[in-house]
């Protein structure tokens, strides 16, 4: 689109719902656009990169579809499932074919023990049987009932609090790999209030953390939703979702621009002006659905207080190594027993942090009787040195670790490495207060809002919920008495 075409787009102040520019084409930006269009708002979505979807990325390897980013959604939250259904992917939603995960720790693959909340145990029976913890580690958990209550305050790091109550082994071998799988972060820095709010509430209201976890489990078991699958994927990969949302937005009249970096966002007498390399777009509202760095740059003059807070947000980088093998070349530890994969506690000193046996986990990925797909992940916040390796080296170190873990000796018939530099925002202690300050500063300018993974959670449903909140905030400002356009 040329500059002259873009400048014909003027804000609408005739009482109609108006026009909003959404900056950022990840799932949050797409969900915001979809929500606005459903409310009758005209939308222009602008993405700096060449493709839409952010960390939802559909690809192909050895002729088979693969997810090169996120692979599932939390199905017990409605936002992602509802969005998928609304864009025609309802029939494609499917639970994992298997959810039998393991931990590779203390020199062996061990079953992931049941009866925990993000690694914090309630029932010690499955934990003791798994062999994940030593006898000393189990005894330390039992000793918690003798401890005096621990003051938790307004926030606390998950690892710090759990280690004080139950011992470091619980954190190092259970909490770390599970939280790391979500945030690629360090459990000793991650905010309990932000990342595991139900655990935070249990810690505040129970003398014993173990009893608090058991109470959470009793409540969860009593909920009707507990009978359904926890997670869901999409036939062909969760990476199909952004394309489906984008197509639905186009059908509803949205204009979507890719490869178009935004240089500036300006407040005008009539509303907002978004300046790109090819021209300008005028609108009644703007939603920033970008990571913290780009958002800070665009808000530097508009809302300096928010920009300063955004510059304090840290991100973790990681890489996914996706490989295709001939099934006949794989050991029984992978192809038999229906394991979905394993997590690796950082304390065990391995390069990979997890491996997913995709062809076991997802029916669609296991459709080819001769091909088997699996992937590993490398890197987390504060431990990203391995990401300096070349792609081929990351494949090699992944194969070495898989060899030690499950006896894999075969070479892949195809492989690809997907790097997510600065891919996951970190949620340290105080993160929710930072988010509140950002939103309060932005809200001082009606018609402007922010959304994305750094605000309300890094999962796909949380990003979609964040987008809905931003869309509602912007449309609520249209026609507000006293609004200074």
From TrEMBL:
Compartment(s): Cytoplasm
Organism this protein belongs to: Streptomyces xanthophaeus
Gene3D superfamilies: FAD/NAD(P)-binding domain, protoporphyrinogen ix oxidase, domain 3, Protoporphyrinogen oxidase, mitochondrial, domain 2
Name of this chain's protein: Coproporphyrinogen III oxidase
Family: Belongs to the protoporphyrinogen/coproporphyrinogen oxidase family. Coproporphyrinogen III oxidase subfamily.
EC number of this enzyme: 1.3.3.15
UniProt keyword terms in alphabetical order: Cytoplasm, FAD, Flavoprotein, Heme biosynthesis, Oxidoreductase
Cofactor (UniProt): FAD
InterPro entries with a match to the protein in the record: Amino_oxidase (IPR002937), FAD/NAD-bd_sf (IPR036188), Protoporphyrinogen_oxidase (IPR004572), Zeta_carotene_desat/Oxidored (IPR050464)
Main location: cytoplasm
Purpose of the protein: Involved in coproporphyrin-dependent heme b biosynthesis. Catalyzes the oxidation of coproporphyrinogen III to coproporphyrin III.
GO cellular component, one term: cytoplasm
GO term, biological process aspect, one: heme biosynthetic process
Pfam entry (one): Amino_oxidase
SUPFAM superfamilies assigned to the protein according to its UniProt record, in alphabetical order: FAD-linked reductases, C-terminal domain, FAD/NAD(P)-binding domain
Pathway annotation from the record: Porphyrin-containing compound metabolism; protoheme biosynthesis
Origin: domain of life: Bacteria
Name of the encoding gene: hemY_1
């Amino acid at each position: 689109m040329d500059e002259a075409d873009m400048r014909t787009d003027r804000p609408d102040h005739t009482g109609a719902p108006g026009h909003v520019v959404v900056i950022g084409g990840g799932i949050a930006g797409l969900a915001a656009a979809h929500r606005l269009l459903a409310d009758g708002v005209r939308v222009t979505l602008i993405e700096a990169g060449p493709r839409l979807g952010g960390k939802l990325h559909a690809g192909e390897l050895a002729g088979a579809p693969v997810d090169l980013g996120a692979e599932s959604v939390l199905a017990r939250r409605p936002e992602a499932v509802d969005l998928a259904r609304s864009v025609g992917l309802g029939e494609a939603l499917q639970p994992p074919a298997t959810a039998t995960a393991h931990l590779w720790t203390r020199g062996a693959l061990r079953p992931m023990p049941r009866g925990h909340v993000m690694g914090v145990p309630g029932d010690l029976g499955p934990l003791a049987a798994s062999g994940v913890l030593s006898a000393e580690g189990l005894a330390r958990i039992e000793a918690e009932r003798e401890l005096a209550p621990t003051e938790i305050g307004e926030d606390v790091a998950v690892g710090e609090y759990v280690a004080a109550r139950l011992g470091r082994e619980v954190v190092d071998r259970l909490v770390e790999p599970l939280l790391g799988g979500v945030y690629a972060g360090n459990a000793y820095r991650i905010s309990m209030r932000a990342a595991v709010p139900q655990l935070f509430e249990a810690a505040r209201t129970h003398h014993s953390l173990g009893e608090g976890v058991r109470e959470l489990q009793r409540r969860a078991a009593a909920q009707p939703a507990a009978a359904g699958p926890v997670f869901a994927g999409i036939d062909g990969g969760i990476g199909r979702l952004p394309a489906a949302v984008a197509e639905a937005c186009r059908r509803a009249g949205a204009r979507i621009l890719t490869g178009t970096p935004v240089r500036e966002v300006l407040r005008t007498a009539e509303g907002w002006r978004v300046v790109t390399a090819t021209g300008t777009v005028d609108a009644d509202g703007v939603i920033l659905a970008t990571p913290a760095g780009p958002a800070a740059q665009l808000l530097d003059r508009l809302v300096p207080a928010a920009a300063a807070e955004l510059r304090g947000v840290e991100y973790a980088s990681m890489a996914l190594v996706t490989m295709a093998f001939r099934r006949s070349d794989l050991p029984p530890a992978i192809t038999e027993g229906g394991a979905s994969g394993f997590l690796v506690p950082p304390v065990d000193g391995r390069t990979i942090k997890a491996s997913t046996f995709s062809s076991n986990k997802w029916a669609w990925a296991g459709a080819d009787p001769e091909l088997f797909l699996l992937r590993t992940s490398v890197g987390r916040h504060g431990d990203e040195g391995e990401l300096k390796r070349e792609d081929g080296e990351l494949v090699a170190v992944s194969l070495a670790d898989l060899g030690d873990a499950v006896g894999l000796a075969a070479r892949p018939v195809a492989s690809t490495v997907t790097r997510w530099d600065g891919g996951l925002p970190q949620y340290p202690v105080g993160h929710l207060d930072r988010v509140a300050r950002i939103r309060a500063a932005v809200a001082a300018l009606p018609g402007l809002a922010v959304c994305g993974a750094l605000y309300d959670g890094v999962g796909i449903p949380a990003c979609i919920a964040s987008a809905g909140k931003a869309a509602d905030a912007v449309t609520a400002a249209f026609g507000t008495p006293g609004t200074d356009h």
